[in-house]
Amino acid sequence: MSNGKNANATENSSQMTLKECLEECMEAVDLFLNNHFSESLERLKPRVNESMYHALIYATVLEMQAVMTFQHDDISNAGNTMKSAQDICQRFRRKSPSLGKKSAGDSLTEEQLHAEVCYAECQLQRAALTFLQDENMVSFIKGGIKVRNSYLIYKELHSFIKSRNSFKGPNHSHLEGGISFGIGAFNLTLSLFPPRILKVLEFAGFSGDKEYGLSLLHNGATEKNLRSMLCALLLLCYYTFLTFILGTGEGEVVDAEKLLKPFQLRYPQGAIFLFFAGRIEEIKGNIDEAVVLFEDGCKAQQAWKQFHHMCYWELMWCFTYKRAWKMAYFYADLLSQESRWSK
């Protein structure tokens, strides 16, 4: 009988509040950004079957790894883990009707609101993996349905928190950060589509306002919340890669530098931020400085070799610009041997 009491006591003591879950997940994100990738996953893993945030961040890290490796097994594992995270989020979601209905909105708890934004994020990330895994029409349709479901939830949540300015729970900054990431990502991404396609998407209920998307992502990146990393990474990718691919990259480097600076101060040896710092110097034409930063990014961590491939790609181009052909060939050869992205 005493054993039963002890078991119940242990179970109760193991339960974490939403605030405690968010704090532990923030610590795990800090570990990740400081290159302690395995420790970050180890911090999250014990609670992935009971906490929606632990499950979501754990699956997000695995998805980032899968995107870098481009290995079928990694993509499949990340997809299954994200599906499990979505199931965990579903447990905490509302059983009531749409958020747009006053009776439903007024009865929502803070935890249920967070479950909605986590569920939407799972849907969005699963869609990305679906597109990555199989390039066929069935996968495209499945991914499209997930994207639409995710967007509708984000849109509903965004309208809900805007219409109830007085409703702010103790963890509101994390909720708002999640919504800013979702709505910002959709607006920015859709704004990159050709005007004719964008008109069709807007007719279907989507929004593609680039400036609005950038402002939401900037707010999410600069406020202290769990999604600040995702907001910042999406913006840095846009400023340092997409704008140049699309031919609209004038003046974006200054914005990228301003955004990156606080992250560099907080994570001076963070491989991810060393990479983007190198990319910025490369764009500015400071090739020698860029080479040093990319090499530092490789030295900063050895756990994720796939991250080195991103640096190798940029180093190959840096040495090409310098007409140092042997070094350019060296990195091109490494990529051809080690990276599936290069095959």
Characterization of the model:
The chain has 343 residues and is mostly helical. The protein has 17 helices and no strands. The chain has helices at residues 2-14, 18-33, 37-44, 52-69, 72-92, 102-106, 110-133, 137-163, 172-191, 195-203, 210-222, 228-245, 252-266, 271-284, 287-300, 305-321, 325-338. Helix 8 (137-163) crosses helix 9 and helix 12 (228-245) runs antiparallel to helix 13 (252-266). The longest helix is centred in the middle third of the chain and has 27 residues, at 137-163. It is globular. Mean pLDDT is 87; it is low at 1-13.
Descriptors for this entry?
17 helices, mainly alpha, 78% helix
Number of strands: 0
Approximate helicity band = over 70%
Strand content: under 5%
Q: Which whole number gives the mean pLDDT?
A: 87
Main sheet characteristics: none
Q: Helix count, per DSSP? A: 17
Stretches where pLDDT is under 50 for at least 5 consecutive residues are: 1-13
Distance between the termini: 63 Å
The global form is globular
Provide the fold topology.
Blueprint: H1 2-14, H2 18-33, H3 37-44, H4 52-69, H5 72-92, H6 102-106, H7 110-133, H8 137-163, H9 172-191, H10 195-203, H11 210-222, H12 228-245, H13 252-266, H14 271-284, H15 287-300, H16 305-321, H17 325-338
Helix pairs in contact: 2-3, 2-4, 3-4, 4-5, 4-7, 5-7, 7-8, 7-9, 8-9, 9-11, 9-12, 11-12, 12-13, 13-14, 14-15, 14-16, 15-16, 16-17
